[in-house]
């Protein structure tokens, strides 16, 4: 459930002084209750700012589905990895899940290449993954290794040694509004990586984007067995380029290294529409902000989001409804 922080709800009880010539009496004066909250830069919702942010590296191949707790993440980042596949980085702060995974594990993860691990250790991330030992991880015997490593959210969160360093603080996120910016109506948006394909379709009844992986509906587990459709309020599409790896490798299919800071083109999917956008992220410590091609900042509805990273050799297709005035019924391009 959402943790809401209510500050300043203080009631002052004042005892009136009784006059010596009158009967003693007591009156109470109540100061108006004021609700103060911290607005998450990730969701635009009122949440507890003292909860550390946990990033979980989640497997994204067919044997790993359905994954756990995707609908409870503030953001799900889809990034390209080796072999043309994708992996999910689920960011949890506003809502506390129970089970996480399957983890390709503060960063909760199962492991990393020998070339990547030194960079993790040098980063400012507090590593609470399986390689560091400790509690929080277990195997689901109904699935095959390596797609069966799960995590217990509260146990992993408790391993963050310096929670104050894992707070979002005063970071500024994308813009939220009760009247989101509107774009062109679409039937669906499909993102394609060499080994992965995800399609987002707006549900008028749910007022959220639903998802397919190839032709199958994407599902997510809540708790141990409750299965539901994976949905999101907003989809950000970041088009970018791959950078040279910061280390030498002889791998036939090395891990891609997309550039996610600076600025570039992309799309924002909001309220059943799509907006051609420019994203700006000055440094890796900033959250990206999104603007129309004319320079106006794009406002989205409060709630969770998926952030898709499309780099070299990745592509997308936009399908417009037949009633649209768009020049073509569909649009495809490679990043």
Chart the SSEs and their pairings.
Layout: E1 38-39, E2 46-47, E3 54-58, E4 67-68, E5 75-80, E6 86-92, E7 99-100, H1 117-122, E8 137-139, E9 149-152, H2 153-157, E10 175-176, E11 184-185, E12 188-193, E13 196-203, E14 208-213, E15 216-217, E16 219-222, E17 226-229, E18 231-232, E19 234-239, E20 262-270, E21 273-281, E22 289-292, E23 299-300, E24 305-310, E25 315-319, E26 330-334
Parallel strand pairs: 4-16, 5-24, 10-23, 19-24
Antiparallel strand pairs: 1-2, 3-6, 5-6, 7-9, 8-9, 11-21, 12-13, 12-25, 13-14, 14-15, 14-18, 16-17, 19-20, 20-21, 21-22, 25-26
Number of helices: 2
Domains, number: 1
What average pLDDT do the residues reach? 84
Characterize the biggest β-sheet.
9 strands, mixed
The CATH superfamily turns out to be YerB-like
Strand content: 25-35%
* Large-scale geometry: globular
Order of helices and strands: EEEEEEEHEEHEEEEEEEEEEEEEEEEE
| Strand segment tally | 26
* Shape-level CATH architecture: 3-Layer(bba) Sandwich
């Amino acid at each position: 459930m959402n943790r809401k922080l209510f500050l300043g709800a203080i009631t002052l009880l004042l005892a009136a002084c009784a006059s010596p010539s009158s009967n003693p009496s007591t009156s109470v004066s109540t100061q108006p209750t004021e609700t103060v909250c911290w607005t998450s830069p990730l969701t635009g919702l009122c949440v507890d700012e003292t909860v550390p942010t946990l990033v979980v590296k989640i497997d994204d191949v067919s044997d790993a589905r359905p994954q756990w707790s995707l609908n409870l993440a503030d953001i799900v980042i889809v990034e390209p990895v080796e072999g043309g596949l994708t992996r999910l980085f689920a960011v949890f702060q506003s809502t506390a899940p129970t089970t996480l995974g399957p983890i390709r594990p503060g960063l909760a993860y199962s492991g990393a290449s020998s070339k990547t691990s030194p960079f993790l250790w040098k980063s400012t991330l507090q590593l609470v993954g399986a390689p560091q030992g400790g509690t929080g991880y277990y195997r689901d015997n109904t699935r095959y290794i390596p797609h069966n490593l799960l995590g217990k959210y509260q146990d992993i969160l408790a391993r963050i040694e310096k929670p104050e360093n894992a707070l979002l603080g005063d970071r500024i996120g994308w813009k939220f509004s009760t009247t989101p910016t509107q774009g062109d109506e679409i039937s669906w948006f499909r993102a394609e990586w060499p080994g992965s394909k995800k399609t987002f379709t707006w549900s008028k009844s749910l007022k959220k984007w639903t998802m397919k992986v190839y032709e199958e509906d994407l599902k997510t587990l809540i708790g141990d067995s409750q299965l539901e459709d994976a949905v999101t309020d907003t989809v950000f599409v970041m088009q970018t380029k791959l950078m040279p790896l910061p280390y030498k490798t002889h791998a036939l299919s090395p891990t891609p290294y997309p550039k996610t800071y600076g600025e570039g083109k992309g799309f924002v999917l909001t309220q059943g529409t799509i907006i051609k956008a420019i994203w700006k992220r000055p440094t890796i410590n900033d959250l990206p902000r999104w603007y129309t091609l004319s320079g106006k900042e794009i406002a989205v509805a409060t709630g969770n989001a998926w952030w898709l990273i499309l780099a070299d050799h990745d592509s997308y297709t936009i399908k417009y409804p037949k009633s649209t005035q768009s020049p073509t019924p569909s649009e495809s391009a490679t990043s």
